[in-house]
Amino acid sequence: VTSPLIWHAAHGGEPILKMVRHFLGDDIIVKFNSVFVKPAKTGSATPWHQDNGLWRDGETEPFNWWMALDPATSENGCLQFIPGTHRGEIVQHVLYEDSIHGELPRDLVENTLNRQNVEHIELEPGDLVAWHSNAWHYSPANTSPNGRIAIAGVYTNPEIISRRRRGWPNFRW
């Protein structure tokens, strides 16, 4: 995601930076950036997780966003969230034998899904969703004939980092 076009238009673009500065102030740091690709008929699922559960650094205030470059639909694996989970604790994630990365305990997810609704976040190209790092989210496999590509970023600031439980990682400035 270091392509100048993507970097300047999205990560360093004024629309996203305006939102990030609203929440974090003017002194911001890119913590993470990525491209998420779900090819047609073969794109794998991303298990239920909290970003904080994967990072394990204790930061609960970063600004997370995900932007669709292709339509993101229920059929091709759009993001799904469980409303209200951002108010909960960071849950210890489990690396199951078939996991692509740590995930929320499956029995806890199943029990929660039996009590709460899931919001499917369908987006058109250029639409963006932002969330709290504690929010539970998931993306199902893409079994549709349409691929899906998105870019994402996470921003933090020096004040948040100063409260971290772990050391200062290698951020891109």
The portion of residues assigned to helices is 10-25%
Strands, total number: 8
Q: Give the helix/strand class.
A: alpha+beta
Strand content: 15-25%
Q: Can you count the helices?
A: 5
- The rough form would be described as globular
Overall mean pLDDT: 88
| Largest sheet, spatial ordering of strands | 1-8-3-6
Low-confidence stretches: none
Instruction: Give the H and E element order.
Output: HHEEHEEHEEEEH
Span from first to last CA?
A: 14 Å
Q: Provide the gyration radius in Å.
A: 16 Å
Keywords:
globular; four-stranded antiparallel beta sheet; alpha+beta; 173 residues
Report what the structure shows.
- The protein is 23% helix and 24% strand.
- It has 173 residues and is α+β, with helices and mostly antiparallel strands.
- Strands 1-8-3-6 form a four-stranded antiparallel beta sheet.
- The longest helix is centred in the first third of the chain and has 11 residues, at 14-24.
- The two termini are 14 Å apart.
- The model has no long low-confidence stretch (mean pLDDT 88).
